[in-house]
Sequence to fold (543 residues):
Amino acid sequence: MTVRVDTGVQCRRLSAVLSWRTHGKGNRDEGPGESLGLFDGDWNPGEYHYPFRFMAPTMPATYHGHFVNVDHYVAVRADIPWATDPKAETDLLIVGGDRADFTTSKTGKAISPADVHKATRAIPNVAIGCGALVALVCLVVMVVAVGADVLAGGRVTEILLALVSTLPAPLFFLGGLAAMVWGAFRKMRAAHLGEPEMSLEPLQPTVGGPVTVTVALNPRKDLVLEEAWFDLVCKETATSGSGTNQTHHHHELHRERRRFEAGGTTIPAGQTTHRRDRLAIPAGLPVSFASEHNRVAWFVEAQVKVQGWPAWSITVPVTVGTVTARR
Amino acid sequence: MSLSATPEPHKGGALPPGVLRLAFSHLNMRFNPFGEPSPRERADLASVETSDLPAGEIVQFVGDSGRGKTTHLLALAARHPAAVYLKLEEGQDGWTAALPEGVPFLLDEAQRARPERLRALLRSGRTVALGTHADLSALAPRAIRTVRVGGWGVSSIGPIVARRIEWARRGPGPVPMVSDTALAVLVSRHGDDLRSLLGELYDVFQTLTEVGPVTV
Fold:
């Protein structure tokens, strides 16, 4: 750092901070930073040099994308009493990194396929339970509202008006019923199709490295596969604004589809069948990154179409890192 | 007095060719100037009516989404660091915390507040600035100043765009230029929706490969 002083001045603290922050379409996120104190005391007119060094952080790596960018900055500042503090900033590149992923977001933590399967299995039960509760409560509200009119032999228009007065209860009632039907359908499909499961190997692949996707089918009745495929996807998501003015900006960086079933195969009941394919995370693409408003996410979307049933699909996040540098 | 920080060049061998360079250095910029600024930067970048907010005054900034109401309020917040800024989210029709006395209250999305709550606020004698989609002057017990936000044209957008570009400048020398002709094209596409217009410029700057006149 170079300090040029025109007139003598006291400096309470000359400091340098190394930190990362995002820029682009989303709200800015910033890392905690590492601070160094370089000087305190009096300066006479002249030029002063303060060499300093930081250990390069292991993560996150510099990333320049479409909506999401991550950069590292060294900011220097002189705390001068009763004056505007002079400051300067320069950006620098951090290549690679030796951690498999980077996340500062609570929602950006790595999720294993097993967690996804567990959550997926719970969804129909939650839909049926919550749907039934909402429908029941709304039904009670509506019955109470129109009951008196019905018992008193009220006219149809009066009964309808009483029903309208309970809005939005009728709408929630229908929504609750729809959730129950949807949940029941999912359970019926699971009873027929079984619960297909997807697994990844390795769980944390590296850029340039392979990843093997396996879908296991264990139907309870004979089923005919129409089509099965999976997509490996890398997508940036940047969130700008807040509340109802919040906007999510998405940009797909990569999508590669592999079909592991052209169709027509019959899978007998009770027999576990595996469909497996392997592909590489292309070099030159970014590692996983997640901060509060900015994310570079990798995931695998799989879809299995079975004759007579709507397609089964699942999305599993993949945490992609760089190759660990060993010294 | 001046400070400068200059990193030493990389000494650990050649960097992978073509993989990384400082962000937007090919445009003599540090970042895309039409990305999302922080609230503080947004206030600094604001090109708004900067008349002050005298004690006891009520002003409302009225306009549609994307026209600059929030920017006006943030600019006032920058001028009055003690001011309380509150944005009412969807479904929020008031506030629970007691407002500190003697400081301006800047209320964004004020049309979401309950009328009786707003009426009480505007009668309190407090200094108030409102950002609103609808004219709320009927709720005030006395005349309030109304600033219609919007009506952006080439002459008013030009300085905003130039300020954004200077904000992102990396160093001395030329930077991309957005001509009045290009701005006129953008205005014909986006009308006075400033947010949408700046959004298109973001995409344009993502694709620029060198410093020069910007075409849209």
Notes: Residues 42-148 of chain B form a domain with the Rossmann fold fold (CATH 3.40.50.300). Chain B touches chain A through 27 residues (CB under 8 Å). Residues 132 and 148 of chain B are 10 Å apart (CA to CA). Helices of chain B lie at 39-45, 69-79, 115-123, 154-167, 180-190, 194-207.
